[in-house]
C-alpha cells in the first residue's frame, strides 16, 4: 500500500492534480477565517449549535450559524444539482438535453450554476432570519441600529461566499482529483475533528471517550464499507447469433444493483425538511413543538425522521433506476435475464428486486442516521462532537474516500495503458498488472 501511494507521486499529472486539490481545499478553509461585514468578530467561532443546523453544517461542508462568508458551504450548489438530477428524469425536454452527450451535460451544468444563485439567496435569508436575528450578540454594535443595511450586507456576503465555494468545487473537479463538492463536504467534516477533540480535553473521562469513539468509528466504518460495496448482481445473457460457421454473442454479464444506491441523499433530504418546521415553530413561539423537532432521541423526531428517510430512499431509487427503461434497453440490445421473459416480465422482476434492495438500504441509512444519537446521548459530549460522531458524517467521509481511491486507481490503470516505460513497483496497484496482462 505504501509503494502504491508513492507511485501516485511519480506520475507528473497525478502529482499535479493532488497538489492542486490540496491547495484549493486550503483556500476553501481560509474562507472560514473571514468574518461577514457587520457581524461581531468575537463570535466568529460560534459554531452552529442551533439544533438541526449543526447536522446541516456537516452535510454541506459549511458552518451554518458561524459569522463567516463560507457559512452556507456547498449546500446551495448541491440543492441545485439534486433538483436538476430529478428534473432530467421527470421532464422529457431535459432528458433529451441530457442524452445529447457532452454538449447536453454542459447545458445542464450551466443551468445548475444559474439555479444556485436564487437557492443560495433564499438560504442566506433563511439563515439570517433563523440564526442571526434571534442572537443579538452576533451583530456588531455599530450595525445594530441599521437592520436594513445589515440584512443586505449579510445576505450578499453569504451569497458571494456560496458562489465562491461552488467555483472552488468546480476547479477541484476539473483540475484536481475526484468530485469537488464531495471533497469539500469531507474536508468540512474532517476539519471539525480537532476542535471537537479539543472541546473534551479537560474531561476526566477523556481517554475513555476516545476509546469509545474509536470503537464506534471502527464498527461504523466497517458497516459503511460493507454496504457501500454490496450489490445484487443480476445475470444478463446475450443472444447467440450464428453467421455461417461463426457464432456471435452468447456471453454472460451482470447488472449490478447497489444496496445503498441512494447514498446519503435521503438523509440530506430529511435533514433539510426538518429545518423548516423547526424555524417555523420558532417564529410562531411554539417552543414545545420546536423542542420536539430538535430532540434527536425523542419519539416525534425519530419517527418523522425514519419515515422521511424511507420515503426519500424509495423515491430516489425509483427515480434513478427505472425498471421499464432497463427492460426495454435489454430487449433492444438482444439480451435477457435467464429464466425471465423479455419485456414486461423483466421490468416486473427488476422492480421486485429493486424494492427488496431499497428496503435493506433504507434500513441501513435509518440505523446510521438515528442510532449514534442514542449512543452519545449521556456521554457528556458537546453538540459539535455529537455531529461529528454521527453515522451520517462517517458515511460521507468513507463514501468519498472510497470514491477517491477508485479514481486514483483509475489514474494508475490509464497510465499503464499509455505505455509508461517505468515499471510499477510491487504493490503499486492491481490495475497495473491487469492492464499489462501480467502478474504483479
What does it look like?
The model is unreliable at 46-52 and 421-440 (pLDDT under 50). The chain has helices spanning 2-10, 12-30, 52-60, 75-90, 92-98, 102-132, 147-175, 180-198, 206-229, 265-284, 287-292, 299-320, 323-332, 344-375, 383-389, 391-417, 430-436; strands spanning 231-238, 240-243, 246-249, 252-258, 335-336. A three-stranded antiparallel sheet has the order 4-1-5. A two-stranded antiparallel ribbon has the order 2-3. The chain has 440 residues and is mainly alpha-helical. The two termini are 13 Å apart. Helices cover 67% and strands 6% of the residues. It is globular and about 90 Å long. Helix 2 (12-30) packs antiparallel against helix 7 (147-175) and helix 3 runs antiparallel to helix 10 (265-284). It folds into two domains: 8-199, SecY subunit domain (Preprotein translocase SecY subunit, Orthogonal Bundle); 203-381, SecY subunit domain (Preprotein translocase SecY subunit), CATH 1.10.3370.
Amino acid at each position: 500500500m505504501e509503494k502504491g501511494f508513492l507511485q501516485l507521486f511519480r506520475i507528473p499529472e497525478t502529482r499535479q492534480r493532488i497538489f492542486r486539490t490540496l491547495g484549493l481545499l486550503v483556500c476553501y478553509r481560509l474562507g472560514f477565517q473571514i468574518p461577514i461585514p457587520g457581524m461581531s468578530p468575537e463570535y466568529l467561532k460560534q459554531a452552529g449549535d442551533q439544533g438541526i443546523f449543526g447536522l446541516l453544517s456537516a452535510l454541506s461542508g459549511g458552518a451554518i450559524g458561524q459569522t463567516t462568508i463560507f457559512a452556507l458551504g456547498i449546500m446551495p450548489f448541491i440543492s441545485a444539482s439534486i433538483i436538476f438530477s430529478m428534473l432530467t428524469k421527470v421532464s422529457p425536454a431535459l432528458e433529451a438535453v441530457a442524452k445529447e452527450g457532452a454538449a447536453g451535460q454542459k447545458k445542464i451544468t450551466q443551468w445548475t450554476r444559474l439555479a444556485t444563485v436564487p437557492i443560495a439567496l433564499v438560504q442566506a435569508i433563511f439563515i439570517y432570519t433563523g440564526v442571526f436575528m434571534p442572537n443579538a450578540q452576533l451583530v456588531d454594535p455599530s450595525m445594530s441600529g441599521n437592520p436594513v443595511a445589515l440584512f443586505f450586507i449579510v445576505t450578499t456576503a453569504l451569497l458571494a461566499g456560496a458562489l465562491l465555494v461552488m467555483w472552488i468545487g468546480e476547479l477541484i473537479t476539473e483540475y484536481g482529483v475526484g468530485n469537488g463538492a464531495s471533497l469539500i463536504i469531507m474536508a468540512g467534516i474532517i476539519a471539525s475533528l480537532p476542535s471537537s477533540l479539543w472541546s473534551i480535553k479537560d474531561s476526566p473521562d477523556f481517554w475513555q471517550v476516545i476509546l469509545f469513539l474509536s470503537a464506534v468509528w471502527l464498527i461504523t466504518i466497517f458497516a459503511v464499507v460493507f454496504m457501500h460495496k454490496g450489490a445484487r448482481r443480476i445475470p444478463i445473457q446475450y443472444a447467440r447469433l450464428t453467421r455461417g460457421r461463426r457464432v456471435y454473442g452468447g456471453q454472460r454479464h451482470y447488472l449490478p444493483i447497489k444496496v445503498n444506491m441512494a447514498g446519503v441523499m435521503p438523509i440530506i433530504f430529511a435533514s433539510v425538511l426538518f429545518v423548516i418546521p423547526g424555524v417555523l415553530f420558532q417564529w410562531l413561539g411554539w417552543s414545545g413543538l420546536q423542542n420536539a423537532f430538535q430532540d434527536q432521541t425523542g419519539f416525534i423526531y425519530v419517527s418523522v425522521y425514519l419515515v422521511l428517510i424511507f420515503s426519500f430512499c424509495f423515491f430516489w431509487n425509483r427515480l434513478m433506476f427505472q425498471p421499464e427503461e432497463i427492460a426495454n434497453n435489454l430487449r433492444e440490445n438482444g439480451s435477457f435475464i435467464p429464466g425471465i421473459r423479455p419485456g414486461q416480465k423483466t421490468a416486473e422482476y427488476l422492480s421486485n428486486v429493486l424494492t427488496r434492495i431499497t428496503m435493506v438500504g433504507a434500513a441501513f441509512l435509518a440505523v446510521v442516521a438515528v442510532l449514534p444519537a442514542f449512543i452519545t446521548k449521556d456521554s457528556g459530549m458537546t453538540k459539535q462532537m455529537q455531529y461529528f460522531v454521527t453515522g451520517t458524517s462517517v458515511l460521507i467521509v468513507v463514501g468519498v474516500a472510497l470514491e477517491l481511491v477508485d479514481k486514483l486507481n483509475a489514474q494508475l490503470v490509464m497510465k499503464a495503458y499509455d505505455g509508461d516505460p517505468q515499471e510499477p513497483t510491487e504493490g503499486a496497484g492491481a490495475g497495473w498488472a491487469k492492464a499489462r496482462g501480467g502478474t504483479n
